[in-house]
Amino acid sequence: MKQLIFIIVCSIFFNHGFSQEKEIKEVKNDTTELEEVIIVTRRKLSNNRQEKTLSSIDDYLEKSNNITMIKRGNYAWEPAINNMVSDRLVVTIDGMQIFGACTDKMDPITSYVDVSNLEKVTIGSGQSGTENGHCVGGGIDLKLPTSKFTDTGLKTSTDLGYETNGNFFATGIDIEYTGSKFYISVDGILRKSDNYDAGGNQEVLFSQFKKYNISLQSGYKFSETQHIDANIIYDRATDVGYPALPMDVSLAEALITSITHYYRPDEKSLKSLETKLYFNTITHIMDDSKRPDVPIRMDMPGWSDTYGFYSKADIVINNHHFTFNANGFYNRSLAEMTMFSNNPNEPDMFMITWPDIRTLYTGIFAKDDWHINNNKTLSTSLRLGHHTNKIEDRVGVESLQIFHPNISDRKNRLLMSLSSSYNIKKDTKNVSFGLGYGERAPSVSEGYGFYLFNSFDNYDYIGNPNLKNEKAIEASFGYTQSFGNLKLGLESSYFYIMDYIIGEIAPSISSMTIGANGVRVYEALDHASIFDVYLNGSYKFSDHFSTNTTIGYNLGRGSNGENLPLIRPFSYFAELNYTQHNFNAAIQLEGNGNQSHFSSFYGENETASYAVLNLNLGHVFYGNHGRTILKYGVENILDTNYSTFADWNNIPRQGRNFYINLSYLFP
User: What is the C-alpha to C-alpha distance for residues 379 and 169, in angstroms, rounded to an integer?
Assistant: First the structure.
């Protein structure tokens, strides 16, 4: 209790979080606390690191310093923030909670949207990411487009893309009508890829995929102060191969729906009130029917349904900008496995791997941005929540009681997160300090998973409903300084995580999966620590030439003396840009150093250093009936064969790849 009081008092005086300025904007115009905002646009000629018109959302996210994407194949990469995977994050779509239906993390939330659905992505490091839920590592919110009542009539646009590596093809179309009181927008996109080749023309088997996404957004304006929006997103992926895993996916399907009411009074302290009701449902089916040699064939379907709401208010009183968010959700997660015997005389085996877990959460978030003067801002936030898990399947309860005899079918938790930020912003420099405290509940797999096979360390995993809340204290520092055309920056964070949840070997339990090394049961280390630091620099040679660089270092250790898995090694990025009004070009060098602090205890091995060279170019052409944007280039120019620390089981990344993207916008 004394420690908690100390944290609360300290949080008043220190800042949380520091953001880089790289396609970054302030989330609220009158707030100097910055979050990283990635602008998702398919039709902008720019010289940032995002070079393709039809990049996937995974490509966009991978450009952030704080984010790494864990790859199990050529599709549906799992985001990690501050070297913490999705269990320790809160990932939402326009503030809506949505949970994957795969026990093997083949369907992160980011895989169920496309760039055609989104306007931007906000990334909050650590406790700055708790506006929509509790987390330890940070939050990602995939923002849908804002309401449009521009009275501009009908607009259409089309996109085409092709890449030589993997014979990748993408096409999309948007149709939009906007009036003064009503608007409607429909878009669709199709992506299809064969197996890609690693460096040296080495084919990576089972890396194909096919996906299409359709979305509809409409709105009606009742008055100048009130309007309503409705959104529907349907996403379907089929024949998705995962070369790093023993199984593929025959279907990953999501329906995401919401209705939102907006109220923005004129010249009042209440600046806006936004209330959303939503529902989403996911079906995910793993199978190995296309694998030539398997010890025993399996089907593993999973389902996830979520009902939820939130109500957000922005209030400005004198020098204080208050943000409030009351939200809640109800989720049902169910997964099962059927093993088909190769011997027709033996019966098939059926097992429930997520025993119909029902999660009910209600919480409230409050934040005060206090503008002390034109240069200084103190921001303090607090989130409180009540979290309940219930095992609906009686067989699931009895199965887990084999390993945890004293569990019941229900578990209640109270969760708290708080942080404070102090930012000093002047003409040529920006300094920030931070401290935060956060808690999270165990994920469905960590708490209730039953014999979930992890191919990374080759162990079966069993959940533990008795786990305590994972808790973290974090500190951060940021500094940027401009010297004319030269800009330098430093950002660093440190996380001290208590009751760190990770799988521990249970030698007395036999594995279920043929060939597995054994069984791990989710337990909690006394503590773990994660440290990262990044140096950023940019220089503008002239109106046309500029350069920017980033180098980073990360380290993670557990209280057992072992390195933590999936910690990024020394990394670097350098880019030289040339820009004119209707043309841009950039050459990029990116790479990692040797991963010397790998975690063999948790199934990780050493990955070698690498460096990759890319070239991208873009043109824009203006005509009487619209404009055309052409982007083209080559990735991995030297055809390097390499893997990174984030490539599951060391699957190699793409070799040389020529690409071309074409967009046509009708007026």
Answer: 46
Q: Which of 302, 326, 296, 301 is nearest to 312 (CA)?
A: 326
How far apart are the C-alpha atoms of 372 and 369, rounded to whole Å? Answer: 9
- Three-state DSSP at 68 gives strand
Any residues with CB less than 8 A from the CB of 8 and at least 6 apart, and which? 418, 437
Q: Do 309 and 361 touch, CB atoms closer than 8 A?
A: no
Number of domains observed in the structure of the chain? 1
Q: Are 460 and 406 in contact (CB under 8 A)?
A: no
Q: In Å, how far from its chain's centre is CA 194?
A: 25
Coil, strand or helix at 414: strand
Distance (Å) of CA 149 to CA 120, 155, 183, 228: 19, 13, 6, 11
Do 74 and 207 meet the contact criterion of CB atoms below 8 Å apart?
A: yes
The CA-to-CA distance between both ends of the chain, in Å, stands at: 62
What the block records as the tokens of 364 is 């409230």
Q: In terms of C-beta density within 10 A (0-12 exposed, 13-18 middle, 19 or more buried), how is residue 151 classed? A: exposed
Tens of pLDDT, residue by residue over 616-665, are 999 999 888 788 999 999 999 999 999 999 999 999 999 999 999 999 98
How many angstroms separate the CA atoms of 334 and 409, rounded?
15
CA 516 to chain CA centroid, nearest Å: 30
| Two structure tokens written together for 588 | 């990029």
pLDDT in tens, 362-400: 999 999 999 999 999 999 999 999 999 999 999 999 999
Helices and strands counted in the chain (H then E): 4, 33
As a whole number of angstroms, the distance between CA 507 and CA 493 comes to: 36
- Token pair of 158 as six digits: 């089309």
* CATH number, domain with residue 576: 2.40.170.20
Q: How many CA atoms lie within 13 A of 153 on its CB side?
A: 2
CA distances from 519 to 102, 103, 459, 543 (A): 20, 16, 5, 60
Q: Is the pTM of this model over 0.85?
A: yes
Q: What's the domain range around 336?
A: 2-665
Structure tokens at 183: 């608007």
Pairing of strands 226-240, 209-221: antiparallel
Task: Match 């302030």 to its residue by tokens.
Answer: 26
DSSP of 89-146: EEEEETTEE-----TTS-S-GGGG--GGG-SEEEEEEGGGG-SSS--SSEEEEEEPPP
